[in-house]
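Subject: complex prediction, re-run

Hi both,

The earlier run crashed halfway through, so I resubmitted it with identical inputs.
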Amino acid sequence: MLVDSFGRTATDLRVSLTDRCNLRCSYCMPPEGLEWLPKPELLTDDEVVRLVRIGVERLGVTEVRFTGGEPLLRRGLPDLVRRTVELEPRPRVSLTTNGIGLARLAGPLADAGLDRVNVSLDTLDRETFKRLAHRDRLPDVLAGLAAAREAGLRPVKVNAVLMRGVNDHEAVPLLRWCLERGYRLRFIEQMPLDAQHGWSRTDMITADEILARLGEVFALTPADADVRGSAPAESFLVDGGPETVGVIGSVTRPFCGACDRVRLTADGQVRNCLFATEESNLRDALRDGASDDDLADRWRAAVSRKRAGHGIDDPAFLQPARPMSAIGG
Ligand code: SAM
Ligand code: SF4
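This time it finished cleanly. Structure:
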């Protein structure tokens, strides 16, 4: 098992399949994009499957989430999903995507065995989308969402990040829109993980603010006060339920004490935390001929060094060198 020195066990593996993206969300990367990882540095499909297999067979991983960058840009994604669901014991397999291309891929992904999908959608307004993501792709995202629902990838979850003065007036419209379509909306507090280091605590829209805005229109009651467990989203029944809305207060309501996540970057580095400042290079070990046992040992050692929390409030906090798009959110 992947146990750290505070007794937490990592069972939820986030695998980044690429650091590239077809959007430029301003809380994530600059409009001009970033210097992408060179292809030879990326894990091949076989390398990804081998490491995921070690996680599943030897280290107690039960959940695999493919992310990025934009994971739909990775060629052969349905095949990777199929090879992952064939592992024993079968992990649950999900995807976090910006939705562009999902209109075409939702069916093949569902056929390959994908269990669930999270689609990021921060605004319903085309102009705001262009301003926030620097691309005119809102219709593609909406088509992708609809296709995911049609393909039976339910519940379709929607992730939204609110930015002050950009889309923070859309909390209520976004929730209403999602409720009408049966999508499960979760708001995520903006974290200091953008490549351009533009995050500021005072600009951030907090979980409290989001709840206050929603509370002006909807009656919200805690849905799972006792069973939050390692789930980062605090969930609220909307107008008595059964529909819910989630709020992920990563900064102001951290859930580090119950964290069960571990990450593998597209270039084969294990990260024990989104905010980790050190990584463990499984790719080079693998390419140097390491055995499954050896790779598993290295992975265990990497997780054992996980810190107690992200420390964003600590004056000594250092933003990790890798931006979110290269870590895998
Ligand atoms: N490209 C895909 C997408 O946007 O869903 C997958 C990768 S993206 C890094 C994963 C999630 O992280 C998205 O829901 C995105 O909104 C969120 N995200 C990116 N940068 C963030 C930040 N600085 N703070 C909070 N969430 C962020
Ligand atoms: Fe791309 Fe996702 Fe980052 Fe937006 S949040 S720029 S869609 S990786």
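The two ends are 23 Å apart (CA to CA).

- K.
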